[in-house]
Each structure stands twice: as structure tokens, then as C-alpha cells.
């Protein structure tokens, strides 16, 4: 039996997601893609609480799968295979998804595929835009930040990434420091419009160090210091808030643009047929960051692809699609499939230390 219709399941962070795809690698249609977020559940805690996330996934997964099937106009009997995020991520959530997928695969006697969440993000430009290998991918979200040269469905070379916070995490923390609401990214982008990005001198971390690694934690501390210097009676004036938002955003734009320029130099040396810079992750929604990346790509002679936001952020369509790209009907996982908190895409690059608020970095 050829796999035509595949169910994807994603639960590695704070979104419970299920999707149904039909087709094959390079020619798949998304029949449905349902994402049930948990923002409200974690709102009081300033970050994702792993135990709350795992419980919410366990509660929502069945409904989420049911809704994805309904929206696709299919029943479980019409699904040929199940793909599930098996890592990296918050382990309780990943286990919930893997158990759900195993149950469906066993009950139906269909193939089960454990997929790397980062591979899902990294292969999305092929699902949305049919981008040819090799392309350069920048993953920028609340949990991830890395440059990858994607040369095949399972051929990833990591050029560098953050050594501490992910950019989205930094946006969220800075928003909290300057009394803006969560999620911090959209709030800072909006507030920055009224601000002067040059008023506060903020650092561009690691630009003095060769290579593509990045750091955003010191930038956040620098914002904290500047904020403290402006506080009057424990409150921040509206203009100070806007100037800090604009200054912080400008620093992130500069760091991402310069590190992308370096990653593009390494990538372009491969003489790709259709040189392309792709982005994924929620931070790619930021228009200033996007413009900076697009400009950098154009200067290097590369195209720029940013999938629609609903497929840039966590979703299950990317997980189902990665399975279509990476697996055959014989190359399946059995009931021994286990959840992996860490699972680097590039097996040759050193493991990233530390863990972000949304789980292990890779
Ligand atoms: O990819 P995503 O939905 O979830 C994961 O992190 O897995 O990304 C969410 C992150 C949040 O940290 C949010 O603040 C950030 O993306 N974000 C933005 C913008 N919209 C969302 N950051 C900067 N500018 C934005 N417009
Ligand atoms: Zn993700």
C-alpha cells in the first residue's frame, strides 16, 4: 500500500496540533491543520509549565485529531499512516503525542513514524513553496534559533545558533521588563513603531566573534539596566518604553542580519542551483526582522522564502510532511518508538547546552 493520506501529531511545546496531508514529497496537499494553543493556561507563570502542558496535551489530543479528521472529511479508517513529533521538546508533551499516535497506529495496523520537530520546521519551505535543496534555513522562534543548510530530507548541516536565549524568548522577557503584554514579540514590534531605536545604546552580542553563533541574554540584561536608569517612582514613561522597544528590536535585527550574512557566505560557496534563504518560527512574523533578512539575502544573490505564519509556527502539517519526505512505507517505527527530549538534527555538530523556557534547545 502506498502512503497517500497521513495524519500528523505535534505536542512538543505548548500547542496541541493535528493535521491530515494527502500526496507525496514535493506534492502534498494540506487537507486540514488544527492547532489548539495553551497560552491562557500558562499566562500566570511567565513561561510554559511542562507539567501543565503535558496534562493539557493529554486532554486535548483526541479532540484535536478528531477535528483534523472532520475538517479533512475523513475517518480514521481512511488514514494510511501516522507521523508524530518524537522530540526534541518538553518530554511530557512529546510522550503524550507519541502515546496517542501509537494507539492509533496499533488500533488501525498502519505505519508509525517518529519525526524530529526541527526537521518539520526545516522542511516546511518544500511543502509551501517547493524550494529545491540545498537551501539555507534560519529557525527563529521562542524555543529555537539556528542556521541549517538543508541539502536533503535527512541531510542537515548546522552552522550555528544561540548559545543562550532564543530570540522569541528574549522578546518575551524584554516585554515583561518594560511592562508590555505577552507574547512579547508582537507587543514590542507595535510599541517600537513610536520609538527612537538610537536613543539607548544597546549591544550587538557576539558580532565581534567569528562564526554564526548568537547570544540574546546579555542584550536583555542591557535593556534591564537602561530601564532601571529611566524608572521614576517605579514607572516607565511611555516614550522611554517605546524607545527601549525600538532599540531592542533594532539590535536583534542587526544581529540576525549580520549572522545571516555570514551563514549565506558559507552556503553560497556550495553553488546552489536556486540559492534561497528560508525562515521559520514565530519571530519571522516581525516585519523589521523579515525586511533585514530579505535585504541580506538579496545582497548575497539569494531568494527569500517565508512560509505563511500558520505553517511557520508550531503545527502538525509540517510533521506529517517531514514523514512523507523522510520515510518509506518500510522504514517505520514500531511500538518501541520513544520520546527524546534532545535530538539534534545535525549529528556532527556539538550538542547545545542548556534549556530554554520551551524545552531543550536541540
Ligand atoms: O514559533 P512560535 O509560535 O512558538 C515557539 O516558540 O515554538 O514562536 C513564538 C515566539 C514568541 O516568543 C513570540 O514573542 C515570538 O515568537 N513572536 C515575535 C513576533 N510574533 C511572535 N517576535 C518578534 N516579533 C513578532 N512580531
Ligand atoms: Zn517549533
Explain the overall architecture.
It is a single chain. The protein is globular and about 65 Å long. It contains 11 helices and 12 strands. Helix 5 (167-177) packs parallel to helix 7 and helix 5 packs antiparallel against helix 8. Strands 3-2-1-4-5 form a 5-stranded mixed beta sheet, sandwiched between helices. The chain has a 5-stranded mixed beta sheet with strand order 8-7-6-9-10, with helices on both faces. Strands 11-12 form a two-stranded antiparallel sheet. It is α/β, with parallel strands linked by helices. A hairpin with a 4-residue loop joins strand 1 and strand 2. The mean pLDDT is 92. The two termini are 34 Å apart. The longest helix has 31 residues, at 238-268. It binds 5'-O-[(R)-(carboxyoxy)(hydroxy)phosphoryl]adenosine (KG4) and zinc ion (ZN). Residues 117, 121, 141, 143-144, 314 line the site of zinc ion.
Sequence stretches where pLDDT stays below 50 over 5 or more residues = none
The small molecules bound here are: 5'-O-[(R)-(carboxyoxy)(hydroxy)phosphoryl]adenosine, zinc ion
The number of distinct helices, counting runs of at least 4 residues, comes to 11
Distance between the termini: 34 Å
Which class do the helix and strand fractions yield? alpha/beta
Order of helices and strands: EEEHHEHEHEEEHHHHEHEHHEE
Q: Fraction of residues in helices?
A: 40-55%
For the largest beta sheet, what order do the strands appear in spatially? 3-2-1-4-5
From the spread of the alpha carbons, the general shape counts as globular
| Strand composition percent | 15-25%
What's the number of extended β-strand segments? 12
Average pLDDT, rounded to a whole number, is 92
Rg (C-alpha, Å): 20 Å
Largest β sheet strand count, sense and barrel closure: 5 strands, mixed
Amino acid at each position: 500500500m502506498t502512503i497517500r493520506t497521513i495524519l500528523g501529531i505535534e505536542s512538543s511545546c505548548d500547542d496541541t496540533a493535528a493535521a491530515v496531508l494527502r500526496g507525496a514529497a514535493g506534492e502534498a496537499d494540506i487537507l486540514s491543520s488544527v492547532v489548539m494553543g495553551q497560552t491562557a493556561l500558562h499566562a500566570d507563570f511567565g513561561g510554559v509549565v511542562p507539567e501543565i502542558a503535558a496534562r493539557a496535551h493529554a486532554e486535548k489530543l483526541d479532540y484535536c485529531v478528531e477535528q483534523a479528521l472532520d475538517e479533512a472529511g475523513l475517518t480514521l479508517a481512511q488514514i494510511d499512516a501516522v507521523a508524530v513529533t518524537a522530540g526534541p521538546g518538553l518530554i511530557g508533551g512529546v510522550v503524550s503525542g507519541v502515546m496517542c499516535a501509537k494507539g492509533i497506529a496499533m488500533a488501525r495496523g498502519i505505519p508509525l513514524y517518529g519525526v524530529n520537530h526541527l526537521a518539520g520546521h526545516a522542511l516546511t519551505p518544500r511543502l509551501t513553496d517547493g524550494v529545491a535543496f540545498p537551501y539555507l534555513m534560519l529557525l527563529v522562534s521562542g524555543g529555537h534559533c539556528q542556521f541549517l543548510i538543508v541539502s536533503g530530507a535527512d541531510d542537515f548541516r548546522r552552522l550555528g545558533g544561540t548559545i543562550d536565549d532564543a530570540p522569541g524568548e528574549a522578546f518575551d522577557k524584554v516585554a515583561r521588563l518594560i511592562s508590555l503584554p505577552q507574547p512579547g514579540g508582537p507587543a514590542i514590534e507595535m510599541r517600537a513603531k513610536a520609538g527612537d531605536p538610537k536613543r539607548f545604546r544597546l549591544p550587538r552580542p557576539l558580532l565581534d566573534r567569528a562564526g554564526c553563533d548568537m547570544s540574546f541574554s546579555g542584550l536583555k540584561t542591557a535593556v534591564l539596566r537602561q530601564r532601571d536608569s529611566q524608572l521614576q517612582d517605579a514607572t516607565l514613561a511611555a516614550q522611554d518604553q517605546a524607545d527601549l522597544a525600538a532599540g531592542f528590536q533594532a539590535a536583534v535585527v542587526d544581529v540576525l542580519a549580520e549572522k545571516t550574512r555570514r551563514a549565506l557566505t558559507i552556503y553560497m560557496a556550495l553553488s546552489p542551483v536556486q540559492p534561497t534563504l528560508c525562515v521559520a518560527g514565530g519571530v519571522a512574523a516581525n516585519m523589521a526582522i523579515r525586511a533585514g533578512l530579505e535585504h541580506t539575502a538579496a545582497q548575497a544573490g539569494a531568494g527569500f522564502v517565508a512560509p505563511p505564519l500558520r505553517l511557520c509556527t508550531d503545527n502538525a502539517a509540517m510533521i506529517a510532511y517531514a514523514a512523507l519526505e523522510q520515510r518509506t512505507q518500510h522504514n517505520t517505527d514500531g511500538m518501541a518508538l520513544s520520546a527524546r527530549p534532545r535530538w539534534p538534527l545535525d549529528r556532527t555538530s556539538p550538542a547545545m547546552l542548556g534549556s530554554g523556557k520551551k524545552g531543550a534547545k536541540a
